[in-house]
Amino acid sequence: MGGLFLLMALSGRTIESVRFGDLEVTMAAELRKQAAEQADSGLTEQAQATLNVLKQLNPASRQDPEVRAVELTIFDNRVRDAVEAARSEGEQVEHHPDAGLGEPLAVLVARPGEVRIGVFAAYSLDGSGHIDATASDRFVRRAREADCAAYLFVNGQLHQEDLERLADGIQRDGGQPVGIETWASTAQPAPLRPALDRLLARVRGAQDDRTTIPRQ
16, 56, 127, 142: least surrounded by Cβ within 10 Å? Predict the structure, then answer.
């Protein structure tokens, strides 16, 4: 019964009747739906709290593709928030909520010169930490065609070899410089301004420095 009251408090809905044998299943489905709605609305911390309750109630939900999709939305939200927090006076941030493969999630437009820095949230859709070669090639082609002077990958999960393949592909043959910012976890985002400033220095000065990807 305590779990039922918790579900009602989190969801804001009244459940008039439920069989006790179905209580856990009903709660898990309701919590998953609630977390997705919160994440889609930009209520990142509420969505994370709801997912935490869901995982405690049903540890098997950690492998649920729908839960994984909510986690990725939460990560996207945190990256967008970090770009906004990194914006200096006079700079602008363009958000691309419907960004496809190889398109930046957000673009910081820095001054002077209106330098455009595209920011990616780096992860694998299936939770493996890897992206296949075909998707990687498509990503690189699209990124090299975008209207940005440089790119920053905010890495929450991708393995080092996958990051190297993406970064090297974009920078190949004089392409745009790439920076990497690896977060310890999606719940502990690091400030992006230092990484953005390093990229701006490369765009405005010598661009022969190669991307150094931290060992994980």
Answer: 16
φ/ψ of 152, rounded to 5, equals: -125, 125
Give 41: exposed, middle or buried? Use CB within 10 Å, 0-12, 13-18, 19+. exposed
* Amino acid letter, 199: L
- For residue 172, the tally of other CB atoms under 10 A from its CB is 10
Cα–Cα distance between 24 and 28 in angstroms, integer? 6
Pairing outcome for strands 150-155 and 178-182 = parallel
CA pair distance 208, 72, nearest whole angstrom = 33
**Could you tell me if 153 and 182 are in contact, meaning their C-beta atoms sit under 8 angstroms apart?**
no
- Residue 69 phi/psi, 5-degree rounding, is -65, -40
Pull the structure tokens for residue 157: 């999960």
Contacts of 37 (CB under 8 A, 6+ apart): none
Higher pLDDT, 61 or 150: 150
The token pair that represents 132 in the structure block: 């296949």
Look at the block and give the residue holding tokens 């602008």.
92
User: For the whole model, what pTM was predicted?
Assistant: 0.82
Task: For 118, list phi and psi in degrees, rounded to 5.
Answer: -85, 135
pLDDT one-digit tens code per residue, 167-192: 999 999 888 999 999 998 777 789 99
Residues 61-83 as b or e (16 or more Cβ within 10 Å = b): beeeeebbebbbbbbbbbbbebb
Q: State the burial class of residue 39 (Cβ atoms within 10 Å of its Cβ: 0-12, 13-18, 19+).
A: buried
